[in-house]
Amino acid sequence: MRTSGVSNHQSQVASHRVLWVALLAISTLLASAMFALARGQDSSRPLRAADAVKSQVFLSLEPVPQGRRFEVAVVARVATGYHVQANKVLEDYLIPLTVTADLPAGFKLLNTSYPKAQIRTFPFAKEPMAVYEGRFVVKLEMEAGASAATGATTIPLTLKFQACNDQLCLPPAKLPIAAEFTVAPASARAKSLHPEIFGKE
């Protein structure tokens, strides 16, 4: 009888030990999954193109008198660890960054200037690439014609790009943005804005 009691006790101890090991393994798996999920939600590794590139729009004048030239600046910032292809790509298959404008009646686009690209090499490509990283500015020179309607005005813009990191590329994106300002009569006095942007090349 004593032998049977000892055997039962040993069996219970062994069962508890197996259960403890199983619980430890499950806890480890759950911790790993939570860690992976946290890394996946890290702001430096965005999962959407809209999170990879943030942008703001600035104007050089306010208001914009009829018949005057003015500039629109798209100031963009690429998330840490990511890059976008420059406007002038080095390979035909790459998707260049562009900013386009849907101009209302009476407006003319005179020029679009893109920043100088950075030449980088990446593990996934044999050839170097022309890219933008961090903060960069795209400027559009426009003219409000004499026939441009006065009052509150919006010029829709589209920022097109593809963001990549060292391991993957997000789908190509077209983000709608806009320049909002006031058009005034030709005799109105305009105030220059944001010299920190428009005063530099």
End-to-end Cα distance, whole Å, is: 95 Å
- Outline: elongated
Class of the largest domain in CATH? Mainly Beta
Secondary-structure element sequence? HHEEEEEEEEEEEEEEH
| CA-atom Rg in angstroms | 29 Å
Strand order of the largest sheet: 1-4-10-7
Overall mean pLDDT: 83
What is the name of the CATH topology of the largest domain?
A: Immunoglobulin-like
Number of strands: 14
Low-confidence region ranges: 20-44
Number of domains: 2
Helix content: 10-25%
Question: What is the helix tally?
Answer: 3
Account of the 3D structure:
It is built from three helices and 14 strands. Mean pLDDT is 83; it is low at 20-44. By secondary structure, it is of the alpha+beta class. The radius of gyration is 29 Å and the shape is elongated. The protein has two domains: 1-41; 49-198, Thiol:disulfide interchange protein DsbD, N-terminal domain (Immunoglobulin-like). A four-stranded antiparallel β-sheet has the order 1-4-10-7. Strands 3-13-11-6 form a four-stranded mixed β-sheet, with no helix packed on it. It has helices at 2-40, 49-52, 195-198; strands at 53-59, 61-62, 64-65, 69-78, 83-85, 98-101, 107-113, 118-120, 129-132, 135-144, 151-161, 163-164, 173-184, 191-192.
Top keywords for this entry?
Immunoglobulin-like; four-stranded mixed sheet; 2 domains; 3 helices; alpha+beta; 201 residues; 39% strand
Brief account:
By secondary structure, the protein is an alpha+beta fold. About 25% of the residues lie in helices and about 40% in strands.
